[in-house]
Amino acid sequence: MRHRYDVVSIFTEYLAPLELSLIGKARRAGLLDLRVHDLREHTHDRHRTVDDTPYGGGAGMVMKPEPWAEALEAILDEPADSTDPAQPDPRPLLIVPSPAGEVFTQRTAEAWAQEEHLVFACGRYEGIDERVLEWAAERFRVRPVSIGDYVLNGGEVAVMAMIEAVARLLPGVIGNPASLVEESHAEGLLEYPVYTKPADWRGREVPQVLLTGNHALIARTRRDWQLRRTLERRPDLIQALPPQRLDARDRTVLEEAARDTGGEDADPLS
């Protein structure tokens, strides 16, 4: 399967970082077909207007529906290189960054990495006329998505974050696939702390367990570190873990960590 990502924006230069690092390398290697489209090319007045005042009053401007419809139709008119017959719904997935959308997570990235065609609509101002999403739902699978509980000036930053999170999961993009398994959120936990040479740096030593060569002990210790770090920084992730994901040792580590920070009666799983 060749993966195709289309991005529509009025600030196409904002997406220039997608030419860099591993994502840029994946594009040049043909692993990812990433196309950036200028919304203003689908306007028909000399000012290339993409926004207007909101019906009902209120501050700010709203993005006009017709340029968006024409831009999305143009993307659909560009046939994909191939169609995966395993896809139950052949319509592209249209992602609309919005603080009113569902929250983007690592699980979302994993699901989208299985998609053949993603389209990202970078809104600006007060957002895109709601009728565009209603109209698009007949042609796309529409997903308003938020990268966090805050507001940005536009969707470009969110789209770059989402594309990087998804594209790095595609086969061949990351040089060592094993690193994807060990990183933060891969299994619902934060990543363990990492160290490199020298073993003694400014009076701070690397934990001795990492120098033992005992790989089973190192793996167990790193798991303990993950549990403690996640409980300290993101207790909500611990509470969301399915019970079957925790063995007896995990529960002991969490109980000890909870007592260290919250007293004898603290229960990290409640």
From TrEMBL:
Q: What is its EC number?
A: 2.1.1.228
Lineage top rank: taxon: Bacteria
Catalysed reactions, semicolon-separated: guanosine(37) in tRNA + S-adenosyl-L-methionine = N(1)-methylguanosine(37) in tRNA + S-adenosyl-L-homocysteine + H(+)
Where can this protein be found?
A: Cytoplasm
The residues listed in the UniProt record as binding S-adenosyl-L-methionine, with positions renumbered to this chain, are G123, I147, G148, D149, Y150, V151, L152
Chaperone: is it a keyword of this entry? Answer: no
Entry-linked InterPro entries? Alpha/beta_knot_MTases (IPR029028), tRNA_m1G_MeTrfase_C_sf (IPR023148), tRNA_m1G_MeTrfase_TrmD (IPR002649), tRNA_m1G_MTases_N (IPR029026), tRNA_MeTrfase_TRMD/TRM10 (IPR016009)
Top EC category = transferase
Query: Which GO terms of type biological process are on file?
Result: tRNA N1-guanine methylation
Query: GO cellular-component terms in the record?
Result: cytosol
Which UniProt keyword terms apply here? Cytoplasm, Methyltransferase, S-adenosyl-L-methionine, Transferase, tRNA processing
Record-linked Pfam families: tRNA_m1G_MT
Residues covered by the tRNA methyltransferase TRMD/TRM10-type domain: 4-239
Q: Which molecular function terms from Gene Ontology are attached?
A: tRNA (guanine(37)-N1)-methyltransferase activity
Q: Which PANTHER family match?
A: TRNA (GUANINE-N(1)-)-METHYLTRANSFERASE
Q: Which family does it belong to?
A: Belongs to the RNA methyltransferase TrmD family.
Name the NCBIfam families for this protein: PRK00026.1 (NF000648), trmD (TIGR00088)
**Could you give the subunit structure recorded for this chain?**
Homodimer.
Instruction: Describe the function of this protein.
Output: Specifically methylates guanosine-37 in various tRNAs.
**Name of the featured protein:** tRNA (guanine-N(1)-)-methyltransferase
- Coding gene? trmD
